[in-house]
Known about the structure:
The protein has helices at 8-19, 25-36, 42-50, 55-88, 109-123, 137-140, 182-190, 231-245, 299-304, 321-329, 342-345; strands spanning 127-128, 134-136, 174-176, 195-204, 216-227, 252-259, 262-271, 288-297, 312-319. By secondary structure, the chain is α+β, with helices and mostly antiparallel strands.
Amino acid sequence: MDDTTLPPELAALKERLERVPSLGPAELEEAYVDLLGRKQGRVTKYLKLLAAMPLEQKRVYGATANTLRVQLEDAFRARRHQLKADSLAAPGEDLTMPGRRRWVGAEHPVTRVVDEIVEIFREIGFAVAVGPEVETEWYNFLSLHFPADHPAMDMHDTLYLDAPPVDNEPAGRLLLRTHTSPVQIRTLLSSPPPVRVVIPGMVYRNDAFDASHSPAFSQIEGLAVDEGISFIDLRATLTHFARRFFSASTRTRFRPSFFPFTEPSAEMDVECQLCHGSGCPACKGTGWMEILGCGMVHPAVLENCNLDGERFTGWAFGMGPHRIAMLRYGIPDIRLLLEGDMRFLEQFVP
Ligand code: PHE
């Protein structure tokens, strides 16, 4: 039914409806009583009038009147809501705008990797040990059987501190530790075998900050020293770790390597997690990813910790959680893991 055929009472109600959104607070309440008041409201009165009309009119106008009543109720409710919001808002503020989503924090992907590694080793009896990031040359290099002229001790590779060494520490300049291995020494000096620990922490090197290098990154070290420990224990434990951390069917391989503080030494590779061995750009076509260095603790290291190298043997490993996070999540640039840019990190919020 168009407006021209509406009875004048209904046409008037329709006009009033259109004006509701522009009414002020007092006008609004007045208009409400005038239109929708239970006894004297215009809508109520019209509905009463209908009762006396012929059936056909009752049917048509009754439906229109009821629709108008509902529309008026809605219009008043919306206008009241808007006026209330306006009265609470400072000038220029719009309280009907949707709220800002609350910021939700989450674990950094590298923290998650470290926690998982610690947990896997905890299950098989390893405790956590930590040590200082500022070390002496003795703990960082010499006690670990580095020869005094080893290139790693060069200023080009290691960040030395200007401060003089503290009196009660063994000789040598102060430096930022270049690996977590000095905590092997600290652990063996403070608690005799049997020792089974994992050692997470940050390490520092005089390196460029580019896609694959950073002057600061994380390592996690492992150390097991006891009577009768052999390379078989090393291999079995690290293979178990790879299967728990990556997947139950992940293949591993050990390649000979060199570290001053282990003999024999090895690198452990795991099957590339992206191509599963067939070769892809991430593994440079080899099908393998290098994830850690390891080996049997050198007897000279045990001796530096006042342990009998005939009686005790052990193995150690070291790996880089930043690198492992990059391999696991397919992150192409280590800087993304160190810059704290929320646009990147947000994708790891569970
Ligand atoms: N410290 C070695 C590095 O930083 C890693 C390592 C630790 C190797 C323990 C063998 C045993 O490269």
